[in-house]
Design brief:
With 391 residues, this protein is an alpha/beta fold. The chain folds into two domains: 172 residues, 3-Layer(aba) Sandwich (Rossmann fold), CATH 3.40.50.1970; 203 residues, Dehydroquinate synthase-like, alpha domain. The protein has 15 helices and eight strands. It has a six-stranded parallel sheet with strand order 1-8-5-4-2-3, with helices on both faces. A two-stranded antiparallel ribbon has the order 6-7. α10 packs across α11 and α10 crosses α14. The longest helix has 23 residues. It is globular and about 65 Å long. The relative contact order is 0.11. It binds 5,6-dihydroxy-NADP and zinc ion (ZN).
Length: 391
Amino acid sequence: MQQFTYCSPTEVVFGPGTEYQVADYVKKYGGSRVLVVYGGGSAVHSGLLDRVTQALTEADLTAASFGGAQPNPLLAHARAGVERAKELEADFILAVGGGSAIDTAKAIAHGAANPETDIWDFWSREKPLERSTPVGVILTIPAAGSETSDSAVLTNPDIGRKRGLSTPFNRPKFAIMNPELTLTLPVYQVACGVTDIMMHTLDRYFNPIDNALTDALAEALLRTVIAQGRTAVADPHNYDAMSELMWAGSLSHNGLTGLGGNGDWAVHQLGHELSARFDLAHGASLAAVWGAWARYVCDARIERFARYARNVWGVEEDDDDFAAAAGIAITEGYFQSIGMPIRFSDCVGVQPDAVIRELAHSCAYDGTRTIGTLRVLSEEDIAEIYADANQ
Ligand code: NZQ
Ligand code: ZN
């Protein structure tokens, strides 16, 4: 194992009815003036937003709401939220929703605590983030894992970039997780979530280093998500399956399944370019490139891909080359079976060569970076992977 530090400080409050405890947890973490951040309206239609606001005001907390966080949340919207938080003099930001509402809440929290700085300066690494406002979460979709992660992802359409920011200040104080709140999800969003949870695990698992315990945890998480995901996509009202996915989503992205390793994360970087350019849902963007990525890099650690095939998918094949190829094909078949794309023609359409080159150039930050650790990928490598996915 390599050196690591592990701090997953988010207090997890799991189970039916837990959203009614929200005021206690806001108070516990010092909140009195709360900006409630939500998405496009699902929390309004379900009545959750009203229940939450009522619970806060009945506990003598000041609450105001700020909606409109869209999937692949936008910088401009988060900036507007910062202004709203300043008007309210908010001392606590509460996200109600999924990764998009949560990441917007994190951005607002950073902006509210640093009124002299434009929040994009933190995402572009122009300024270090040294303080923030506490954030709490009521989660409504098992997917991004933002409820316990140290990251937040924003899209800046002015420069065509979707970028993540990782910092301990992104860890929410608490995450309220009631699986019943997920039962209104469309099947497509369930499938996107399953894919993202798998990919948070796979992007850590496929790295240059072997770690017995970390790898075994990752494999168990993958087997669980694959099985429960199958059930949930067939029946999104299945509480047991959705509750397993909900917990798996948090564990897949709080750092646990990558400890001691050196995560690859190339697939996330490849996917972010598709989301930035085509506004493709995050989970779908990952499924659309994973197979092309895996085929391109697998020779660098064929034994790792073979182990994945055997331990996660039960492939019985002694030869590593055959096992690895089978594992990649079965993974793509699984994505298709839950309605996810596995190539561009399934989602954004086949693109001209010029677009493939632009995607690669942007993913390489205009030729200034490589991506990946299992195999380090240059702009030319990235272009090859996009070209393979472009069918
Ligand atoms: O916006 P509303 O109306 O709430 O609808 C949402 C949205 O359309 C809907 N939804 C959520 N809960 C629902 C529901 N519909 C019915 N019933 C419910 N209970 O689902 C759609 C997707 O929501 P979103 O929040 O976008 O999903 P997700 O959690 O997948 O978040 C995706 C965003 O998170 C980023 C992604 O890049 C993307 O921008 N990520 C954040 C990470 C992090 N902060 O750690 C890590 C991830 O790798 C990811 O990059
Ligand atoms: Zn993700």
